[in-house]
Batch of 3 targets.
Target 1
Amino acid sequence: MRFKFSLGTLAGAQTLAFLASLLTLQQSIFFVPANAANSILTEKKGQLPFTYIPYMSDVHTETVSAEAVQLAEQLKLTDSLIELTKLRKARSADRNSLSRDELDRYRDLKEDVVEAIEQTRMEVDFAEAELTREIAVHEEFLASYIAERNHRVNLSNAWGYRTNGVLWAVAEGLTIPTYARPRYSISSGIVGIVAGLAPSAFSLYALRQDAGGRFERKPHPNMLSKIFNYQVTPELEYPDSVWKWLNSQAPIGPKVTRLAYLIDWWQRDGNIRYFSPKPTHHQLDLLTATVQDELTIQLVSDRLSMLRTVDAMIVGMNRPLLELMMVVRGTKSMSAPTQ
């Protein structure tokens, strides 16, 4: 009897030690951060949709909007458009009222203005082409990384289901002969403990995969580079008209430039976690793709959000550009700026 008591005590101690080790393993799986990159993420209060600067363009008004006036001044077309409007009105009132020189002047002005508007539209397309390419690449990254994350989660869950079923089958199988061999209850209990803890460990591992893995790619700077004063290649350069538009203040709305408004929004947006109110150099390296040694789902999502808002801000130039073209065609008029 004394020998049996010692054996039971030893088995109980081993069981408790095994249980403690499994609990420690579970805690380490659950509490250790999934990625070292998480240390540079920023927790923010708000997670709101992006609020765009309101547009003023209206195709149904007789005169151009303040946005169109601003763009005309930036393109140095204001005087030409005003003169073109006057000549068109005079020509519409009496087709014979204009002299040959005035008609030549009218045609030259119209040709010059149309060329300037068309070039600006192409410059918008130039910037948008690179932004669209980068957005497409990052969307592919995001889909691939999410699929890889989901595969890990599904694989972990599958192993959890397998171990749970097999181990409980073994535990119950050992329980059956305990009426004749009571010592089997010890083995049955140990296997039952493992059957409960092993699936839990797999489940906790699956929870850790929520942020996905970390991936490494070659550095490839993007269109955010110039915004944060990084060196850029010709394909990442913004045309002068586009860059001037971004660095100008909208006639209505925030009393800051359009680009400053974008940066301020990125700093406040809780969905963008790699861009803090006071971004570090390492955060900017990751966002501009100057460094790509720890790509994550969150980082790719942040880049996508920022690239899309830049794209939306640039494409907005087409609205006042349309108004200027309507002035050329005579469906809108350009008034002289008030002093």
Target 2
Amino acid sequence: MAAMDMPLLPMWLRTVWIVGLCAVVVVHVGHLVALSGQHRAWHAGHTVMATGMALMYLLPRMQHPELYRAGLVLFALVALAQAVTTVALRAREGAVNPLWLLSTVDMLAMVYMLLPPATRPDWLNWVFVVYLACQAVAYGLGTWDRLPVFTSRAPTSVAAGAATAAPEHTRDHEHTVTPLTAEPAPDPAAGPVVGLVAHSSLGVRVTLAVMAASMAYMLAVM
């Protein structure tokens, strides 16, 4: 990142972003402490991401090159861990969780920002800017909350012994006859297909939108 007096990133604007990102950290740390399992890991990732962004706004690359090199290694490892988590959960849950996938892409954007400026092509800069701007809008509007993977219900399991012992009942449709056991009815008490579900709370959505916007703006002015 350039010097502290960048025309498009004056000190007052840096301060605004830093304060906003510190608020993001506080919110996600609160959820990290209160929750468990996938939710805790997901909030931990966003806590690290928001902390990294706050430090990038506070400490320019020119004055702190070692910090940026260390950050590059750290976020590359976190991005790798999240990619492995996304694939492993896909195998276990039978569906790709968009939250883990998007979090991995966001972490890759952090890795990209920490690369030496000479290695970052302008066109890829703007690809990430557009992506992160769309992320900010999507998070703010709660778009991801409404994805089918978060609203679908796991079907009720049918015991194998009962299925083989009991005769197969059928139900008549207008054009065909379908076995009742072909498509088990969803269990209203069952949980979503994936273990990590989207937050519907406005506070969390705002923090995610702020973080995505801060990343998009930094990439745009770098």
Target 3
Amino acid sequence: MRSVKSAPSRSLREPAPAGVIDTIGTAFTILNHRPYLALMVVALDLLLWLGPRISVNEIGRAVNQMLSRPEFAGQSPAPVPMLSAEFDAVVILASLIPSLVAALGPDNIALPYQPLVLQPMLAASIGVVFALFLASIGLGMSYWTILAYVVRGERLRRAQLFRSTLRNTLVMLAYLGLLALAAVGLSFLAGFTVFGATLLGLGDIVLVLFTIATAVLAILFYIGTFFVEDAIVLSGAGPFRAVIYSLGICRIAFWPTMRFIAASLVVQLGLPLALRVFTQNAAAVPFALVSHSYVATGLVLASLLFYRERIVLVLRQGANAKREEESRR
């Protein structure tokens, strides 16, 4: 009588992705073998800490003057604090790189000397902000691209790294541009909705509902696009495909994703507060900067590892769905 072998279980054929704790542990193991990966974060924090400051209060003054015109009368416009004299435009460089100085604010970190403060005129301020924004995307994507090479186990070749960084930078700029267009469109839609509701005497109710809906949508957007950077640098995805992949990760591994995001947020928000005691003394600031850069880089590596192990499931599920659709035709 011929024996029948049972099919191997799914757990034997497809090992389950590592859990959140194991993923974070693996990330820090990688970082311990390559501590130089955190140097870019340290260098950026040193620049934000000890480098010259660029004040863009001219932009804030121009915006406040515009809001003070008669057509805005009665709306009691508040000043623009983010563009005041206290705002250091160099912090823009930390848009995509985890920075302790940016998280706490340059003014909340002790200095060994008084830094140079540059105050360009209005036109120059706009140009500086735009240039710093472009530089921040380039720096950020170079940081993410280097970590992606390490996660994939590839050697860092200068020419290939430059091409990959340039490509990823352009994709991120396209993604941010699409987000800006979507934000403008939604702003107009929201404005017309609130205006129409005000004419009908429902302005207060609609405004409250709109505020709640905006908060909920912001949370969902943050969760749904959490792995966009990972998709760009690891999967070579474009703007739309990166969002699809990020949503796919959330859909196929919802609760692990929630746990990972929660763990990341706890560390990202709690670590700067914990290190704040060291930032009150200029001699202890380097310790805080190095500690934060180490932990923050480990979390970015963990995010890339988390994405890499689960995007395979997303792609496999998509391929299976495509085959089933073709078989039904």
